[in-house]
Amino acid sequence: MSDLLNKEPVIRVQKKLKEFDESYKVIVLDSSARTAKEAAESLKTDVGSIVKSLLFRSQNNFFLCLVSGDKRCSLNKLKKIKNLKDISMANPQSVKEVTGFTIGGVSPIGHLKKIEIFIDNNLKRFAKIYAAAGHPHCVYKIDFENLIKITNGTVEDITE
User: Fold this and answer.
1) How far apart are CA 28 and CA 42, in angstroms?
2) Is the pLDDT of residue 118 over 70?
């Protein structure tokens, strides 16, 4: 499993973490963290403390929403925030092209292209939160304030 740390997407995340704070590191799990529920079970933590990284598109613009694992992203709230009528989930191919990650391992950091990021205000309920680190078996632990700083994201009410 430790060879996962040598995979290019995981290396990208690790590099961003180290640039931000030397103490942050990628955690390799024995079991999958492909879904928030799986990640919470693997880490023995509340599913709400898992960050779901969801890519949305409007025409040719993409933006990433970092959502608490126990919440659903609200398309209506996103449409109001972005002042757009047409927003949808990005398809798996677009997710890979824009972020450089496959679904199940999409990290809030280390994307191939610069994208606007919205952070679910519900994540602040937890002292520590866990986000994907480029592979379904890799995560990292961070707190809410540092998630805002490392992603340069905007905190919004984006869930139902």
Assistant:
1) 10
2) yes
- What is the number of other CB atoms lying within 10 angstroms of the CB of residue 64? 25
Strand 154-156 to strand 116-120: parallel, antiparallel, or no bridges (unpaired)? parallel
Q: What share of the chain is helix, strand, coil (3-state, %, to 5)?
A: 35, 25, 40
Q: What is the token pair recorded at 147?
A: 């998630």
pLDDT 10s digits, 130-160: 999 999 999 999 999 999 999 999 999 999 9
Structural domains of the chain, with CATH: 2-156 (3.90.960.10)
CA–CA separation, 68 and 16 (whole Å): 22
Q: Rounded to whole angstroms, how far apart are CA atoms 143 and 129?
A: 6
